[in-house]
Amino acid sequence: MVSAVGKAAALLRAFDPGVDVLSTRALAARTGIPRSTVHVLATTLATEGLLETVPGRGWRLGPLLVGLAGQIIERTGLVAAVEGALGGLLRHAGQEVHVGQLVGGWVVYLHREAGPDSMGRATMDNRVGLRAPAWRGGCGKAALARLAPAEVDERIARLCRDEGLDPPDPTLLADELAAAREAGYLVSSSFQAGRTSVAAAVVDGDARPLGGLSVAGPTRLFTRAVLGRTVEDVVAAAGRARLTVCTPGARSVAVPAPRRSPITSPTERNAVVPPRR
């Protein structure tokens, strides 16, 4: 029974963010489980709603997972925390607000909001429901920065081991997260070419990161003046969201004040903008 459960879990994990449908042959290749066993397990999972069949193509994740995931999302309180905290973030056409939840070493995007003047403009890849390694984008890195370095290393190592991913450069990431930990925000251009995000972590009453929120858009929008205002807006919004989820009697943890940038553009930088000396 334990072996069967483990194999079933392996089938579910085989569906990464870039793959919607997998054939029985592809599932066998990805998991190392014999095709005959894959077929039996996938049929059983489909009967229970964890997978569903795609005629002529194979299998995809089933509708039951939506309800199960919804319970986890609601339990963390991140969506409730940011409700009412995002006002005033979208000052410029082309900018978007993203909210991502930290799940192990992943960030899962739960909310995306574009300004009213952004219709027809090129959008970012952070679609709602997207799951991405947390170290690749602003929301995820901002959340990781609120964890102890040893825990960050453990989460990344586990994810890379389980999913067969190449790990990030440990020194560069450690330096970036250390700077974000000190400043209380980070500026990142690593998720999508030509796009920049300003992100801050949303934490609970025990200062544990629930996830992150960001304002993002074409890098050309983030002039020195815009960048400075955006940093202030994002840090303030993250602070308001934290107050929403702060539990009675919990130790208060101050959100670091934003620091203005001396540079004119974050184009060449995937890290926290350094403070003025």
Describe this structure as you would to a colleague.
- This protein is α+β, with helices and mostly antiparallel strands and 277 residues long.
- Helices cover 39% and strands 18% of the residues.
- The chain has 9 helices and 8 strands.
- The strands form 2 sheets. The protein has a 6-stranded antiparallel β-sheet, with helices on both faces. The chain has a two-stranded antiparallel ribbon with strand order 1-2.
- A hairpin with a 3-residue loop joins strand 1 and strand 2 (58-61).
- The termini are far apart.
- The model is unreliable at 248-277 (pLDDT under 50).
Annotation keywords:
single chain, 277 residues, alpha+beta, 6-stranded antiparallel β-sheet, two-stranded antiparallel sheet, 9 helices, elongated, disordered C terminus
Task: Annotate the secondary structure layout.
Blueprint: H1 2-13, H2 24-31, H3 35-47, E1 51-54, E2 58-61, H4 64-76, H5 78-82, E3 96-103, E4 106-114, E5 131-133, H6 138-144, H7 149-163, H8 170-183, E6 186-188, E7 195-203, E8 209-218, H9 224-245
The neighbouring-strand order within the major sheet is 5-4-3-8-7-6
Total helical elements: 9
- Percent helix, as a range, is 25-40%
Strand-pairing-aware structural class: alpha+beta
